[in-house]
Structures are given as C-alpha cells and as structure tokens.
Amino acid sequence: MITTALPVFGRAFGFGFSDPVFRFQEKVMSHTSPSTRSFAADLPSLIGQRVKLCGFAETIRDQKHMRFIVLRDQTGKVQLTQTKGDAGLAAALDIPTPESSIIVTGRVDVAPSVKLGGLEVVIENAEICGLAEARLPIAEDSGLDKWIDHRQVSLRYPAQQLVFAVQTTLEGAMRSFWEQHGFREIHSPKLMGTFSESGAEVFAVKYFGMTAFLAQSPQFYKQMAIAGGMEKVFEIGPAFRAEPSFTSRHETEFTSIDMEIAWIEDHYELMEIEERWLSHAITAVAAAHGAEIRRLFGVDVAPPTLPFPKLAFEEARETLESLGHPLRTRSDLDSEGERILAEHMAKTTGHEFLFITDYPARHRAFYHMRQDDRPDMTKGFDLLWRGMEITTGAQREHRYERLVAQATARGYKLDALSDYLDFFRYGCPPHGGMGVGLGRILMRMLNVASIREVTLLSRTPKRLRP
After folding, report:
1. DSSP state, 122?
2. Using CB atoms within 10 A of its CB, is residue 45 exposed (0-12), middle (13-18) or buried (19+)?
3. N or C: which end of the chain has fewer CB within 10 A?
C-alpha cells in the first residue's frame, strides 16, 4: 500500500491493463450521434436524452448478457450499460481494456441501484480512440518517484485532477484581486546577463559565446517596472535555483508568484496587502472545491481570520529558546524552528498563518531596506503557513547611493550589477514586494507531504525527466 508520506497518490483508484493483441481504432455507428459533448456532471439534468460522452474506461465488467463500464471524465464518473443483443456493438466493446480512451453515445436513464448518482447511460454507439497498453506501469506500493516517472497515468487520478483544478481557481482568484486593486501583469525574461539574487545558486547556460543565467526570480525586473512608473505589478512564472537541496519543499524549477508595489510606507503595509490577497484566494477555493478537498484530502479549507499575527525575529528566536529549540544561527530560522514556532502560535492565537518580521540584515538580500534606527536589521518579513515558509518579502532600498553601499559591503562586483543599479539612477519611488511559492501554498492548502505531489513535473538535483 502507498505510505502516508504519499497521501495524494495513495488515494488513487485501482485499475489494471489487459494485454491488447493489436492496436486499432474501432467505430460502431448505429444512430446519428449528438454533436455536442456532455460531461458526467451534466447528466442529472439530461435524463431521457441522448448524449455524447468522452473519457477513460476506468473499469469494465462483463456478464453473459450485459456489460458495464465506468467512464471517467474530468467532472466525475458514470456507469455505461451495454446490452449484448447488438452483435456489432458487442464486438467493438470486447476490445477496450481498462484505461482506454473512448467516446460513447447513448440515452441517460434513471437507475436507482447504481451508486454513481442513480443514473446510467445505455450505450448506442462506441468509438475506441486509444487502447491502453498491456500493463499499468505503476503499482499501489510504488514510491513517489515512480509515480512521477509515469505522470501520464498518475495525473488521471481524481485527487490529482483536483490539485490542478484548485491551482486554476487559486490563480484566477489571485488575478481577480490584482485586477480589482490596479495591478498590471508583467512577463520578465528568464535568461539574464547576471544573477538576480546571489551568485551561488544560479544555472549558467551557454548563450551565443557568452554566459547567461536562468532567473532565480523576477526581482530585478519587478523593480525596473516600479522605476518605470508601473505602480503595482505582479507575475506568475518559472524560477530556477541551483540549490542542492533534497527536502520535500524544494524544487530546482518552481512557479513563483511575485508582487511589487510603489509608494508604500513600510513593510507592514505589504503584509496587510498579502493577507487580504491570500484570504481572497483561499475563500474562492473553499467555495469552489471545499467539499471535494474534504472528501479526497480530508482537509477543511476555510478563509483565514485577519489580521495574521506578527512576531519580530528576535522575539521568535527567544520563544524558540524557551521551547527548547535554540537556533544554530542568530540570523535565520531553520525548518524545525518554523514548525515548532507555528505550532506554538497556533495554540496561543488560533492562527495557522504567522509573519516573522525584522530579520537581521546579514541573512537577507542586499537590496532589502535597513531600519533607520537599526541598520543591522531589515524591513523584511517571511510568512509561515502551518510551519512552512511560503513568502519572503521586504521594503526595497530605492536610493542609488545606499544600494551601491549595501552591495559593496556584501562584496558584490558593481560591474556585474550595473544594469540593476542603473534602474535607480534616475529617480525611483519607495517600494517593496514579495515572492510566494505556488507549490508551497498548494502543499499547505491540501496538507500533502511533498511539493512533488502538487507539481506537474518535478525538477530536483537528481530529476530532469520526464
């Protein structure tokens, strides 16, 4: 059986493949077919009507005079029933194996004994579009890596279908918030002439006799847009980190959600915007998919209570020490510390979300603004959801001379940063923003064990295929 470390894939339905003798496409047309496709979810409103359905033959059960097929499409399942009196239709439906793709037409009938909604479709015509291979390439006791190796099969499972339905709703709600609040979408380049965060975790690629780097984030270009007078921008796109990390929450290529906002007062204004944005998006997911998430993942998705609690880093460090978890470094939280701290705050405040603010400057990006009375501290923050960091944000330093000084203090070569630094030479408003991990949001929303369970195709230091 699938272990509890693989909750999405462990909820997969079971099916197997029979050995087809040959490949072919077979059609039987005994009636004029409806031209418009219907879906399993539509059928309660179509009783007595002829419909056209497309999907996968999840299971096939033969009896002497009847055949029953459970057809699955992206909206649900329906039982198909075939009476074997029609020899041509019976012969055609002898061919498909479980998980073959088929098109059928038939009449929707009430069938109270059928568990799938008390309905069935009596087959009149059938087309076998794609015959399934001989054997299912994954078994229920296969590890997660093998499930990813055969993504074309594991993606068919209802829990996996729901992951990407949730992702679609989530991103749509995020965009609706941005649209309502005057944001503009940008698409920044992913090939860069210099690094965008630090030089230690970049992928270098050949570029017409030069060396280019895959973007670690759209950070520099978001700030360029702000300097260019676009007061609120966002982007959803790929980001790349050449980080030799093998944890359940890291990928070398991931989807980054980024915002940048001009004319802010401080980083607390950014946090207030993010919590309203997340609440808007989570509310939309709960409304659209709450029941299905509860059924397939055992999780109740509910809009969070605002505002989220906030804890300065020094307070967080002291709290962890009092809880018996001293940090190895005085400048950042470790993953276990995040978990312990979030559990403690959830017990004391009732909140799943927690902002950690005011990090020491030595651990944060050189372009984070320093506090006026504490230049060793930044105006930055992280957001934890149930003990996992999902966001890093800060007010940025927009003053050219201070940026140069902070980059120099880090030992960066100013020539390599010249394009970025030039963005601030001609006047730039105060601004700040954040980067949010889409996969990590989905992990926490669906309460799964690995980011690879909510990623279309995983990329890690040891995985570059399929």
Report:
1. E
2. exposed
3. N
DSSP per-residue string spanning 159-203: HHHHHHHHHHHHHHHHHHHHHHTT-EE----SEESS-SS-GGG--
Strands 253-262 and 353-357, how do they pair?
unpaired
Strands (E) located in 215-315: 232-240, 253-262, 310-312
Residue 378 carries which DSSP code? Answer: B
**Amino acid at residue number 68:** F
Instruction: Kindly state the percentage of the chain with pLDDT values over 70.
Output: 91
Residue 7's pLDDT is what? 37
Which residues lie closer than 8 Å to 426 by C-beta, 6 or more apart?
227
Least Cα distance to 75 among 299, 292, 300, 284 occurs for 292
| Other beta carbons within 10 Å of 282 | 18
CB atoms within 10 A of CB 410: 12
The CATH 3.30.930.10 domain(s) of the chain lie at 157-454
| Model confidence at 450: pLDDT above 60 | yes
Q: Is the model's pTM score more than 0.85?
A: yes
Half-sphere exposure for 34 (CA within 13 Å, toward CB): 19
CATH homologous superfamily of 157-454 equals Bira Bifunctional Protein; Domain 2 (3.30.930.10)
pLDDT tens digits for 411-437? 988 988 999 999 999 999 999 999 999
E strands of 397-459, at which residues? 431-437
CA neighbor of 91 nearest in space, from 129, 128, 120: 128
CB atoms within 10 A of CB 350: 9
Degrees, nearest 5: CA angle 330-334-340: 110
Burial class of residue 400, CB neighbours in 10 A (0-12, 13-18, 19+): middle
* Cα 400 from Cα 408, distance rounded (Å): 12
Q: Which residues pair with 384 in a beta bridge?
A: 354, 389
**What is the tens place of the pLDDT at every residue in 86-138?**
888 988 898 899 999 999 999 999 999 899 989 999 999 999 999 988 687 88
What residues does CATH 2.40.50.140 cover in the chain?
17-130
Architecture of domain 17-130: Beta Barrel (2.40)
Q: The sheet that has 191-192: what strands, in order across it?
A: 191-192, 210-214, 204-207
> DSSP assignment, residue 267?
H
